[in-house]
Amino acid sequence: MSRPRHLPDSAPMPPLLPASPPSGMSRRQWLRASSLVLSLGLSELAWGATIVAVRIWPAPEYSRVTIESDGALTAKHTFVANPPRLAVDLEGIELNPALRELVAKVKADDPFISGIRVGQYAPGVVRLVIDLKQPALPQVFSLPPVAAYQHRLVFDLYPTVEVDPLEALIAERLQDNKAGAAAPRPLPAPAVVAGAPAAPPAPAAPAGDPLGELIAQRQPHRPGAATPAPAPAPAGGSAAVGGPALRPSPALSPGHPTPPPPSASATAPAAPPAPAGGGTPAQGQGITDRLIIIALDPGHGGEDPGATGPAGTREKDVVLSIAHRLRERINRTTVNGSPMRAYMTRDADFFVPLHVRVDKARRVQADLFVSIHADAFITPTARGASVFALSQSGASSSAARWMADKENKADQVGGLNVRVQDVTVQRALLDMSTTAQINDSLKLGSALLNEIGSVGRLHKPKVEQAGFAVLKAPDIPSVLVETAFISNPEEEARLRSPEYQDQLADAVMRGIQRYFSRNPPLARNRST
Ligand SMILES: [Zn+2]
Separation of 377 CA from ligand 1 center, angstroms? Predict the structure, then answer.
């Protein structure tokens, strides 16, 4: 995309100076002086820190820049609105090749970052300018050493208008419908809403089916269509979903500072289901007349690689690949005639905090939550798949507790900004009973185990339970599938193979169908 811009002279910050040591000192002398200071053990001198690595994690939700160093860095940052950029003064370091690498690491398709410039601004002060493609809300925070990481300084760049998980799901579905509609029967004019019988501009979905509603509202946005639908109702708490205590409000705010988006759950008029393009015929009076949403949660991501196999396979990569395969299957499957839709809590290599994963699933009112992992154990001989559900009272085995503790550390490794962690969400989750959820999760888990056992070895023949943070949505049956032990060389090899990934995805798909055959999804539109 665009090349990094240079600061205009009028920019409210000093221009970048070329990378150079302090005046009168050669670079070599400067380095020698720095290392001398280190060797003297004066680590409290701010400029003792050395950059060991730099990383950029672009994603539609936010882009992250990480600077890892062997000592804590001090940073002052200023956001400049026009053109949008984040200027950061890193104190106590000298410009080095590792920092310069940042410049080349910006990807052209990074949704937020257009370029990065670095320069030695003053002795012991490096200035970093992150040029942005759009206005952003920056979060700058540091993380203490954890796992394989030393000190990390993190810059997260969030959009000023938050990505709404429902909107994202709708956009994807409309895209698919468009593609699906185009292939079998090309439409003569775009003004026709595919599949919609003559109807008012915004055919509404049943109340309580936020996806259906929003799809219905988005349809008229097509070129040539009628006036845009009104915006969804503002977040209205839990009004629409109180009913049989199955679907409390999804309007929980995520772990970053943007306000929660309007929730669509409150006030839509009851009406036929949204036909949603050409792909899905409207369902009649079946058990349910809405989309069945399966939240797929590929574990780890970004700074958190998860477990790493002996051959170097990273958990975060294989589980994303398995989730993609499972998504394909889900998206072409129906339950009692109702189409299913997969919603991915992450669809790229970036860090998503555990509570945000839960929150996202709740905001799309997922029917099921399936977290996918492939972890390591202390011994390479451990093998076989396991399925876990939440436990309210102690773990079902010490191994299950060990696994939950390990998974719950993902936030530390991945890099959670604890200052903005949404305590309200955490508290809300803690306060709700999960007894019914756990019962359903155990049923779901058994169905999955049964099917997974037909394609691979099982570690334990029954669903285990422990306090996994990511399984805590009180209203969504939630399981965590450890597909295999990546620490076992044989299983690592299988996990890498596309054939086995397909088999696993098939098995989980069959397990989900098996679960629904005995526990049909409930209709969301209940009369109150
Ligand atoms: Zn894991």
Answer: 11
How far is 187 from 295, CA to CA, in rounded Å? 32
359 alpha carbon – ligand 1 mean position (Å) = 19
Cα separation, 221 vs 412, in Å, equals 42
Q: Please state, for a pLDDT cut of 90, what percent of the chain lies above it.
A: 55
CA distance 392 to 331: 33
Q: How far is the CA of 445 from the centre of ligand 1 (A)?
A: 17
CB neighbour list of residue 291: distance below 8 Å, 6 or more residues apart:
209, 211, 212, 338, 339, 340, 341
What DSSP string runs through 408-474?
A: HTHHHHHT--GGG--HHHHHHHHHS--HHHHHHHHHHHHHHHHHHTTTS-BS-SS-EEE--GGG--T
- Cα(170) to centroid(ligand 1), Å: 28
DSSP annotation of 75 reads E
- Supply 245's token pair: 């205590």
Comparing CA positions, the residue from 253, 268, 385, 379 lying closest to residue 319 is: 385
pTM: 0.74
| Cα 164 versus chain centre, distance | 12
Q: How does DSSP classify residue 9?
A: T
Which pair of structure tokens corresponds to residue 474? 């009180």
Supply φ then ψ for residue 81, to 5 degrees: -80, -30
DSSP-derived secondary structure for 126-192 = EEEEEEESS-EEEEEEEE--BTTB-EEEEEEEEESSPPPHHHHHHHHHHHHHHHHHHTTS--S-TTS
- For residue 501 the two structure tokens come to 């990934």
Euclidean distance between the first and final Cα of the chain, in Å? Answer: 52
Distance 387 CA to ligand 1 centre (A): 12
Using the mean position of ligand 1's atoms as its centre, give its distance from the Cα of residue 408 in Å: 9
pLDDT by residue (tens digit) across 464-485? 999 999 999 999 999 999 999 9
Cα of 465 vs centre of ligand 1, distance in Å, is 15
How far is Cα 23 from Cα 345, in angstroms, rounded to an integer? 51
pLDDT at 165: 84
Give residue for tokens 């705010």.
253
Could you report the per-residue pLDDT of 96-139, keeping only the tens digit for each?
A: 898 999 999 999 999 999 999 999 999 889 999 999 999 999 99
* 342, containing H or E segment: strand 338-344
Distance of CA 259 to the CA centre of its chain: 17
Which pLDDT belongs to residue 219? 53
Residue type, 371: S
Q: What angle do CA 380, 386, 390 make, to 5 degrees?
A: 125
